[in-house]
Amino acid sequence: VSRLYPAAVLRRVGGSTALRAVATVALVLVGYTYTHQWFARFDSTIAAHSLRALGFHVTSVGASGLAVHAGKQFDVTAIVTGSCSSAAGVLGLLAVTLVLLPGSPVRRGIGGVVAALLFVVCNQLRIVSIVLVGWWLATTSKEDVLATLVALAIVALLLVVLPYRSLAMRVAAVVFCGLSVILAYDVWRGSNYLDGMISYHALAGPMLTLATLAIGILVLWRAILGRDELKLLSRRA
Amino acid sequence: VPPELAGTLFNAVMALALLLLAWGFAQFVLAYRWGHQELEDALARDPQPEGDYRLVFLIACLNEQEVIGATVREARRLAPHATVLVVDDASDDETGPCALAEGAMVVRREFPDARQGKGPALNQGYEVLQSLSRLSPDGFDPERTIVCVMDADGRLSDGAIPAVLSRFDNPRVGGVQLPVRIRNKGRFLCRMQDFEFWGMSAITQMARIRTRSVSLGGNGQFTRLAALVSVGHDPWSDALTEDLDLALELTLRGWELDCAAAEWVTQQGVETLPALLRQRTRWYQGHMTCAAKAPLLWRHEGVARRTALETTIYLMTPAFVMLPWSIAFTAGLAFLVFNLVVHSSLPFDGVGVQAGLYAGFWYALTFLPHVVHGLLYAQRTDGERVLSAIGKAHVNVFYAYANMVAGWRALGRILIGRADWAKTKRVAEPEQSRPPAWLEAA
Q1: What is the pTM of this model?
Q2: Which residues lie closer than 8 Å to B169 by C-beta, 6 or more apart?
Q3: Which three-class secondary structure state does DSSP give residue B259?
Q4: Looking at the partner chain, which of A33, A174, A199 has a beta carbon nearest the beta carbon of B357?
């Protein structure tokens, strides 16, 4: 029976390390459930300001929606949903910072805050870029859009196949190439700008979110290490 | 459950999946970059050790007559001056005589001390090694004596010994691990293990050269005698993964752990799924138990932060990444497949997203890292075709379920307090399985 005492069980499953891991997972799940709507409203408000700064006419729709107008050709209603918001990234990065990783609290704190801010900024860029892509598709001639997308896809493809490119660049180029091809296909078959926005949202959105989150995690790790240790890491053995 | 709450919970699980995926992706990018660079450097070198080292092979055996003779013979071929010390853990078969016939020094453990696990058997060998040192006229120089722990079925590559010994020229290095390859590749399960070890784990190990936190394994594990002495009387614990435990103990004492990236050690893969699950359950149970030592790494001033961070991340991988990922990935996959089959679009937060596009996104994220490793695997493996490696990379995503199942089983065993040792059985290798002629005559 003593084997099943909580303290004994905890010790066997890896002590505080296991507890930290479970607490991190729980914090992300519970935190997301209770805060995603707040994050959606927050992101929607910031995105509205950003789009107004870019010259769009923006009005709020509901709790986290935006009605964006730019002349007769472009008129969309966008909703910043919970999964579109910064909730997952910010909560994930903060949970990892505050609960999971050991080490100096100051280093972790700085890294966590920088990573979370970076994530919020990149998420804003992502939301705004969806509207900008839609606006570009709506206001530019079909021939020009097709020519631009095909040219971008070819350049990206060259970056993939040419030697002496880093892995990160190749991966980014593969994604960019795929995205350009899909958008070009949408335009070629006559889909409207709303379909293009959905394609872009479906593909580029999650990829940008993931990439930003991965960069945030790297930023956090770097902050924990500090400059001296980073120099040692960059040196080949 | 109200549909709205169910949707929110599902999105929360997907948020967690995204975090875990990004965590894994960040690790993959670093591992690939550093591992690839270290491999290139190692391949460009022709390493020769500067120092004059004494090498001792330490092989713990239990019923290994099928393979031990060839292992000893091969070790003596590669290092004729080395001492080969076989610890026979009360085998029922002819393990001891087979090893003796090939020139090994054999120590036999008897009950009630025998069969307590690999760690205690290795400690017995270590004790004998220290006795040999005391009996030797000059004693063994602990800084220049290297102990190589091998599995009974282990075979070193031809250039392994100079490559490993040259890594010990750095006096801070306490241990060096060789990447592992699988030798019996007749069955698909074994080929997948080779892909896992040589294609993925090996690159990660090479990357860990940078953080000086290479994980020690039970086969092809080289340690400096001085490092073992610093750990204490019994360097190998009775933990289920005594190799990982030793790596942590060495790290805590300020030793660096290194890897000879261009060489390897081969071993037998397990040939059936139940055997694989049994083996992995033991590994994960040991791994999770060892995670309790992670906080200690941050309290010792002698441990570099990069070593502590990488080791901590490695130790928390089963609890933080693998087990939650097994749920999140399965839920996401089921959701995706259901919507692909039943609907043409995903009801994703009210936005009708083309299921095909979304499937493409998940495919790229899930399979791309494996495919990159697969291409590298094809490059490094004689006779491996690129298409076959890419195929294995795809299978590997689902093969990982074996590890996930083992991880959950390990957790279950930990919770109910079971910690018995399930030894991996070897299979006979026809050309090496015969006992020596004199034994057959007898």
Answers
A1: 0.83
A2: B49, B50, B51
A3: strand
A4: A199
